Amino acid sequence: MSLLDKETVKRAEKALKDFDQSLAVIILEETARTAKDAALSLKCEVGAIVKSLLFKTEDGYILSLVAGDRRCSLNKLKKITNKKNISMANPKEVKTQTGYTIGGVSPVGHLNKVKILIDNSLKRFNYLYAAAGHPNCVFMINFTKLQKITNGEIKELSE
Fold first, then answer.
1. Extents of the domains making up the chain
2. Considering the entire predicted model, what is its pTM?
3. What is the DSSP pairing of strand 137-141 with strand 25-27?
4. Cα distances (Å, whole numbers) of residue 38 to 29, 62, 90, 140
5. Radius of gyration of the chain (CA)
6. Chain centre to alpha carbon of residue 49
7. CATH placement of domain 3-152
8. Mean pLDDT across the stretch 150-159?
9. Buried b (16+ CB within 10 A) or exposed e, 70-86
10. What is the pLDDT at residue 139?
């Protein structure tokens, strides 16, 4: 069975194709579970890897898209969202909200609608790579299209 046949990958791929037929899922020989692993597999800078990080708030969830060489600042996230209680979602919450498991969380094709914030540091790169529903599947996209496909708000999230 090809990784392209997995439900999670098909869901990410459908979201990509519905937005732009030229976007495609890339299957990697090596895992892309971490930003560093993905960068090694793709022979690109770690910062060009989009980390999709789900945070839990007192009344919902926020998906933060952050460069692989940066950390999402909880303090900045709290100020931007005007929320006091923000923490990383646990693996079960990530699966329930997005439909993906950690290591393969795509910025698109979620089971539930989630507010998306995009770190402005991702603008540094001509092309970005993000997970496509499985640790060995990614897609390449530019910053402008990433913002449009996710309808994400561009903010300064990283430290």
1. 3-152
2. 0.95
3. antiparallel
4. 10, 23, 22, 12
5. 14
6. 9
7. 3.90.960.10
8. 96
9. bebbeebbeebbebeeb
10. 97
